[in-house]
Amino acid sequence: MAWYPGATRYELQPESDSQPAIRPTQFIVHSVAAPWTARRMYEYWDQSTNLESHFGLGYAGDLGQFIGTETRADANYLANRRADGTGAVSIETASNLQHTDPWTDAQVEGLIRLGVWLHQHHGIPLRICRSADDPGYGYHRLHAAWSTGGTACPGDARVRQFRDVVFPGIVAAATGQPTPAPVPATAPAATSEEDDMPMLLNEANSRDVEIGTTWTGLAFTDAVIHSGPRRHDTLVHLLFEDDVPEGTYIEGRFYLTDTEGNKPSAYLPTRHHGGGGCQFTCAAEVPAGRHLRFQVRAITPDGSPVLLLHRVASGPYWAI
Questions:
Q1: Nearest to 238 by CA among 266, 265, 215, 211
Q2: pLDDT at residue 199 greater than cutoff 80
Q3: Which of 9, 167, 175, 179 is most enclosed, with most CB atoms within 10 A?
Q4: C-alpha dihedral over 74, 105, 164, 56, to 10 degrees?
Q5: pTM of the model
Q6: Distances (CA, A) of 214 to 123, 222, 244, 277, 304
């Protein structure tokens, strides 16, 4: 396990010794929705829940580490530890009860320093995670596969800070460039097309469904993923039972319809082999008067259906 020298060590037991090892490939930032110190976060993890993060950061910049960064922590759902042994390093940061306030200057500095160390020590690449499994840096609501039921964490103000200050600061410090000046949290939103902040899709549905050889349309919050006109970059993550017949493959496809669900377009399907987690992506425009939907089917050697356990749709989108 690895311990960051810039943090106070508050080691959680038995989690620190009993949870499996990971190879860190991501850094995910959270807000704890409480104005706690790092020590108070440790006490919470120790006494109240086992859904811990690796680190906790107070308003004053006090940083505690609870679990080594090469051991699984449980705050990131499917990113905690994947089948290939990779996983995310996570940090909870003090906030108001609604996680609507910005990070303090001391918190921003602490996040940047830790982000640089994770790049240098673990080789986490200097990019924002492009998908739920993609190595890099992100915040909790960025990908739905990082949350069991959807989340706004760490809040709008902190998402802006992450993109405008924290992540650029990590890149600058790691590459020896000048650190960008902080942007006031109360600054008006950018209005140029280049700087336009996207809205974020984050929808989930955990109802079990048997999927067979017939194309089946899936609902997340509802059957429509996007309504035009908008531009989007969407990830659909499906979790099937692991125990499927050898030779099984899952096919998924995005398609457009009119607003009544008729006149479907044709898209080439994407294929994944076996059960477990399957991901499908689509980056395109949805024209006015059209809806984006998603279908899936499962092909098994004997034609039997497989069980879909959970599904999420996530990603940024822009009005056009």
A1: 211
A2: no
A3: 167
A4: 0
A5: 0.58
A6: 43, 20, 17, 20, 11
Q: For residues 23 and 16, which has the higher predicted lDDT (pLDDT)?
A: 23
- Over residues 209-248, the pLDDT tens digits come to 999 999 999 988 788 999 988 888 888 999 999 889 999 9
Q: How high is the pLDDT of residue 178?
A: 55
- 188 vs 254, higher pLDDT: 254
Separation CA 320–CA 311 (nearest Å): 27
Instruction: State how far the Cα of 250 lies from the Cα of 212, in Å rounded to an integer.
Output: 9
* Cβ-Cβ contacts under 8 Å for 98 (sequence gap 6 or more): 33, 155
pLDDT given for residue 312 in this prediction = 87
The mean pLDDT value for 253-280 works out to 89
Residue 190 reports pLDDT greater than 50: no
